[in-house]
Every structure is written in C-alpha cells, then in structure tokens.
Structure to design on (474 residues):
C-alpha cells in the first residue's frame, strides 16, 4: 500500500518531517522556514561534560521533537505521539496507521540507516523520517534530507527505530491527528509571534553560561585555551566536532541562521513590519560569519594554522557572532506585534 | 550567503544526495539551492574518521599484545563506548568492562560471545580473530 504523500526535500530532518506531515494534513501554507521559526528551532549550547565521539557536544538547534510539538501546538493542530517498549508492537502500530492512510513521523538512529553514506553514519539518534507505505517487506520512506524517496526492509526499519544510546528513539512515532481549523492570517501571525518570543527567551534569557548567546561567548573563551590545554591535535578534533555539529547533513554553513533569516522574510508577509526584513539581514550576517569561523577552524584541524593567534582569531569570530545575534534577538523582542 | 556562493565541492555525500541550502538571490530574497558538498565539512568529517581509525588500530595492537580482548577492537570499530555496548548487548556496564580484559574474555561462554558477535554482525570465530565483515 502506498499513501499519496508529497516528498519535499528540506535542509533539516525534523523541520522537513513537520512541514511535509502538516502539508499532508491540509495545511498548505506551511514551509520549512515557517516550521523552524514557529517551532523556535534556533539555539546554541555547548555541553563540555557530555562527550560525543570523544569530543564535547555542541548543538545549534533546540532539542529533538520540539519543532514538531511547538509548531503543531501554535497552529492548533492536535498530535499523537507514542513510544514503545516492544519493537513488535511499535511495528504493528505503524502498520495500523498505514492501513488507515496515515503517514507517520518516526525518530530513528543514523548508525544503521542503510541508505546514508557510511561516512555519515554515527550513533546519532535524533534523525527523523516519514513512513508513507509498505510494499511486501519494504517500507516506503520519505527522508526529508534526501532528494528522492527511498525504502527500508522491516528488519532495517525496526533496527533504526530501536537504536540504543543517548536520545534512544524507543520506536517513537508521531503525526498530526483530527481536524484542524482554517489557518488564516490571524492564526499564522499569532503562531509566528509566539515562536519568536520563545526563541528570544531561549537565546537571551536562559541562565548560566553555556546556552544561548552567552554560550557562544563561552565557547569562544574556551577555544582561546584549546591550544595550550589540549595540544594541536586534540584541539583540531574538538574544532572539527564544532564544525560537524554546525554542518549536520543539510544545514550547511551556519545553515540554521540562514534558515531563520528566511523565516523572518516569510513572517514579514503575515506581520507587515519592515523591521523583520532588516533583522533577517542580521541573521544572514551571522550565518556568513559562522561559515567564516568554520573555514578558520578547518585551517586549524587541517594543520595549516598552528599559532595561538589563529585560535584567538577563531574566538573573535564567535564573539562577533554572539554580538550580532544578541542585537538581532533584542530587536526581535521589541517588535510591536499587531493585535 | 548568496546563492552563487553555495559550495559545490565534491564529497562523499554527492553519490547519495545533494543537500538543500537556504541562500539569498540577487534581490536579497531567500531561496533554496542544492549543494554537492563543502570541503570544510568533508575535512571535519575526515578528522573524525582519522581519529576513529587510530583508535581501532591502537585497540588492534593492544589485543595482539594480550592487553585487551577482541571486544575492545570491535567496540572501537563500531564507534561505541562501554555504555553503548552495554545498551546493545544487554550486559551491565561493569560486565562489559570485565569482558574487555583478555583473561576474562578467554573464559567467556559461547552464549555470551554470541551476544557480542551478533551486535558486531560477525561469527564467534570472527570475533575471536578480529575479522570484521565488510561494511
């Protein structure tokens, strides 16, 4: 059986699953940038004590699952979300949804995801895809970061839905359900406003040094000490990790910053405030600087840049980014939202 | 980033898919573009894999010297740590730590060896001789 489901490629998996599922649900106004912005997806956090592949963890977006949850809530769409202990029950539940013509979002681990290139397969458990049919033993898969749809055998799908380790998916499945009200300009405006406010809070007002704008400054200060403290080789591995997290498949070059700028441009059509356009330019600038910082980092991990001044320069990029993002979010916090 | 600046470097990903980027067109409006890859990013990935290869090699050598059991080799090969291996095999972490010792490994029952062999997708014989399957 094959559900008539439109596969649209996106830059990021969870945005893409959210967008495609909502469009299938009849909300044709939704786009990836809108889902990302309404879901308050932009973030930064440095978690020095959580080690992934022997280097510290960085994240450039909010926790997995948040974008889908917040976007649906803001648009007054009910959702169903389930986790399972038993793989058999998880697969049976998926089959029952497909039988009802309901495509389903699934959280999966990447390590055993057979259609990904081997070089990209780490034990990362917060990937998302949509299952939209089953033919024989094969499930039809719409993975939004891929250009084309693909498929997985029931064994393969079960294995990735029950990958182990941090953020284990536990067979998590989710989809919008029931009927929804008409998404008029008014509702969209309110959703945009609430997404922006959430994001302002997350970037400017989380206490402690490691999250939001202060997290970027904190990271900059740590990087200044990397050469002395870790030596060139380990410092290179840490910086490569920073770039890899920034460059998760499909978010190229501070990609979330560009996506947020795209969101503000789209938001302007609903909110009619030209300030959004000029704030979008600030995020474009931040995205460009994230890219420049990645090039600087590459110079270090390729062994071309070895001096302390090169680490200081890397840190300066991050301080500059923090300043730009701080100002941009402060301007966003002062927007007068239409009633 | 301008649309014309979207990187088109060759990468491991391009045989599988291109990536979607958000970038601005000549009028400053956001649009999307597909990218084959970006060298900076491929290099970061290579750094991570070089590090993994070194760990695998070091594990291989310590097993040969009798300092560790072949489980360490396969654990590094599959980019796992004790916590993850414990989650996949169902053994407690302290048990996995013990099984990494070559003296303990030699006394493990076939039933326990089979648990590890299954996770690493090899036979017990391959497990003992550090012979992984391709992929």
């Amino acid at each position: 059986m094959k559900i008539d489901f439109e596969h649209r490629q996106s830059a990021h998996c969870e945005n893409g699953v959210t967008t495609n599922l909502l469009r299938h649900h009849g909300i044709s106004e939704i786009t990836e940038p809108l889902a990302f912005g309404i879901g308050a997806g932009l973030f930064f956090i440095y978690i020095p004590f959580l080690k992934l592949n022997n280097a510290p963890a960085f994240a450039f977006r909010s926790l997995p699952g948040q974008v889908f949850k917040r976007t649906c809530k803001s648009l007054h769409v009910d959702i169903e979300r389930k986790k399972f202990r038993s793989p058999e029950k998880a697969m049976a539940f998926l089959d029952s949804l497909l039988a009802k013509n309901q495509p389903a979002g699934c959280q999966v681990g990447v390590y055993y995801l057979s259609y990904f290139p081997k070089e990209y397969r780490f034990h990362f458990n917060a990937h998302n895809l949509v299952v939209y049919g089953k033919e024989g033993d094969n499930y039809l898969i719409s993975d939004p970061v891929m250009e084309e749809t693909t498929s997985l055998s029931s064994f393969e799908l079960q294995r990735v839905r029950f990958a182990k380790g941090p953020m284990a998916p536990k067979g998590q499945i989710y989809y919008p359900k029931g009927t929804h009200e008409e998404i008029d300009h008014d509702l969209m405006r309110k959703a945009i406003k609430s997404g922006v406010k959430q994001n302002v809070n997350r970037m400017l007002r989380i206490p402690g040094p490691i999250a939001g704008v202060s997290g970027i400054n904190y990271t900059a200060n740590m990087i200044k000490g990397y050469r002395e403290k870790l030596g060139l080789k380990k410092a290179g591995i840490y910086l490569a990790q920073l770039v890899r997290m920034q460059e998760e498949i499909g978010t190229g070059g501070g990609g979330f910053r560009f996506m947020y700028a795209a969101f503000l441009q789209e938001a302007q059509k609903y909110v009619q405030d030209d300030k959004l356009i000029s704030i979008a330019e600030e995020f474009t600038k931040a995205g460009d600087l994230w890219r420049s910082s990645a090039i600087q980092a590459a110079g270090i991990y390729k062994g071309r840049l070895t001096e302390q001044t090169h680490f200081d320069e890397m840190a300066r990029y991050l301080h500059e980014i923090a300043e730009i993002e701080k100002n941009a979010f402060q301007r966003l916090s002062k927007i007068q939202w239409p009633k | 980033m301008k649309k014309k600046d979207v990187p088109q470097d060759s990468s491991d990903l391009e045989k599988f898919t291109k990536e979607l980027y958000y970038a601005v067109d000549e009028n400053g409006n956001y649009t999307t573009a597909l990218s084959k890859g970006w060298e900076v990013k491929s290099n970061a990935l290579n750094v991570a894999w070089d590090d993994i290869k070194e760990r695998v090699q070091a594990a291989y050598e310590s097993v040969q010297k009798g300092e560790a059991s072949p489980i360490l080799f396969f654990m590094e090969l599959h980019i796992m740590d004790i916590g993850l291996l414990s989650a996949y095999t169902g053994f407690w972490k302290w048990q996995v730590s013990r099984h990494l010792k070559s003296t303990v490994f030699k006394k493990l029952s076939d039933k326990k060896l089979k648990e590890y062999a299954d996770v690493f997708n090899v036979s017990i014989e391959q497990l003992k001789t550090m012979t992984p399957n391709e992929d």
